[in-house]
Amino acid sequence: MSVISIGVNHKTAPVEIREKLSFSDNSLPEALAKLLDQPVVLGCVIISTCNRTEIYAHVTDAESGIETIRSFLQHKSGVEAAMIKKYTYAFTQHNTARHLFRVAAGLDSMLLGETQILGQVRTAYQLAQKHNATDKVINTLFKHAITVGKRARSETGIDQHAVSISYAAVELAKQIFHDLTGRSVLVIGAGKMSELTAKHLVANGVSGVIVSNRSYDRAECLARQFGGRAVKFNELHHYLEAADIVISCTAATHYVVRASEVRGVLAEKTGKKIMMIDIAVPRDIDPAVGKLPGIKLYDIDDLQNVVDSNLMERKRAAIMAETIIEEVVEEFARWQGVQYVIPTITTLKKHGEEIKQRELARALGRLGQISEHDRKVIGSMANTIVNQLLHTPVTRLKEYALTEQGPVFQEALEKLFRLEDLGAPDKRTAAVQAARADEHDQQSELAVRASGQH
């Protein structure tokens, strides 16, 4: 048995392939059901976002599972099998856990450390749970992944450093004003960059939004998004006094904010502090404005320097996150390894017990009338022999179960003792038995706790 992952992302496949392999929210329940119909699949989760499609599955055999899921993707998408194999990546066992944990921590994202992916991982898992598509192994894998995603962010601060131009502007504004609550912004230009910057500022407490654009209709449209107001482009300098923050990003070939206009505002508002962000190329704001008292002027290069510096911080945080991930990969591997060998160990011990009881009955029958003391001595000796013989293979199997070679040693032990001929469960049944055993252990533990509380 193995956990596997097959998928594509922005690094491995072009958008025309990714879009064919993606799943809509409405199609996911049916897709999960079809995967579970495959005998090799014991449990699964599908993560489908704009940048990745990945299927995580607990399977009875890794090679067959990968082939089955790739075939499933081929039939779903209509993409040729050769192309599916070319563009999809596949992970097994510990590498599956490591990959999922890196995804949840934002280390595999287009934007290093982005936060949205953790919610997408959680949502995908919850949907699979809702439709009874997961089993104990998948549940444990994804619970570990969500924990890792949270730890990576809280312990390293990887998502605390702005790595987009629009959010870098917000970071600089916080440095100047500390608290943006109740501040006002004048947005000059109604393009995408202006909209994104205004959006981030509003999300961080800015309440007053004034928009000015050559097209008054577009200014009104953008202002409406933030509950603000639009002003005519040729009158925008009259509103500088109302702004704490000015964002300018137009296609003008000349300055739209001049030093003389800003100087007039400062003369009327003694002690006025204004932060100006010029994202345009060519620049919209006269550089001389930045020399005026009370004015903090940043251009696109200043913002890019912030982004570059923050990206380095995220890369340093990513190194710390990788350490957390390896720690949890090892923890999951230990848990997983023991789960897989429990049915084999149970069958081996049962086999030893049957041999002991059979041979003990035969020996005692031949001895005839002997004392109860002698019976106990002989029984104890038989127990000791069986236990000592089985101790080393059982202990070693548990040790090897924590390595990638665990399944190989498990299969070797089953063949050496011919356990498959002695009622050893098949892999699907073994997985169910392990789940039931785990559930029984949990219930027993809860009962012990409950009894101790009364």
From TrEMBL:
NADP(+) binds at G189, A190, G191, K192, M193, S194. Pathway: Porphyrin-containing compound metabolism; protoporphyrin-IX biosynthesis; 5-aminolevulinate from L-glutamyl-tRNA(Glu): step 1/2. It catalyses: (S)-4-amino-5-oxopentanoate + tRNA(Glu) + NADP(+) = L-glutamyl-tRNA(Glu) + NADPH + H(+). GO terms for biological process: protoporphyrinogen IX biosynthetic process from glutamate. Residues 321-419 form the Tetrapyrrole biosynthesis glutamyl-tRNA reductase dimerisation domain. InterPro entries: 4pyrrol_synth_GluRdtase (IPR000343), 4pyrrol_synth_GluRdtase_dimer (IPR015896), 4pyrrol_synth_GluRdtase_N (IPR015895), GluRdtase_CS (IPR018214), GluRdtase_dimer_dom_sf (IPR036453), GluRdtase_N_sf (IPR036343), NAD(P)-bd_dom_sf (IPR036291), Shikm_DH/Glu-tRNA_Rdtase (IPR006151). One of its GO terms (molecular function) is glutamyl-tRNA reductase activity. During catalysis, the active site Cys acts as a nucleophile attacking the alpha-carbonyl group of tRNA-bound glutamate with the formation of a thioester intermediate between enzyme and glutamate, and the concomitant release of tRNA(Glu). The thioester intermediate is finally reduced by direct hydride transfer from NADPH, to form the product GSA. This is Glutamyl-tRNA reductase. It comes from Desulfoscipio gibsoniae DSM 7213. The gene is hemA.
